[in-house]
Amino acid sequence: LLDVEAIAALKRRLICHADLITPNRAEAEALSGMSIGDTDAMKHAAETLLTLGCGAVLVTGGDMPGDELCDVLATEDGVQMFHSRRIATKATAGTGPTIASAVATGLAQRVDLTTAVRRARAYVRRAIETAPGLGEGEGPLNHGHTAAPFTAAI
User: Fold this and answer.
1) Cα 66 from Cα 86, distance rounded (Å)
2) DSSP code of 109?
3) What is the pLDDT of residues 55-84, one digit of tens each?
4) CA 36 – CA 64 distance, rounded (Å)
5) What pTM value is reported for the model?
């Protein structure tokens, strides 16, 4: 949704201050300038975006083709890939902001980044599985489901 000048400003002035960015495939393509057609390209884009100065990059792959989903997390310690089976549904509106918010929630609870991503992915998956099925197009998630408890001391 941003023009070229705004993308340049985002890359130059904002991303370097972020602990984590969570672009989907299209956003990662716009920010990295590369085409992303498979998980290797997602990994390369995540590593490239990490060089912009943010602490970590989570490229989400929900809009990639295939029966398996893959999200790619890049940090200075390396790259992790998170795989799961795709759910056949149209109830996917808002998955990007939801996963970003769920990861942020975990980090605010002082959970390590990998655990926060795993919990966020589980939360989004359950929100899709229990979606109310509203509308005829891309429908909303069920944000009101109960998240898995976190038992570690904060």
Assistant:
1) 8
2) T
3) 999 999 988 888 999 999 999 999 999 999
4) 9
5) 0.90
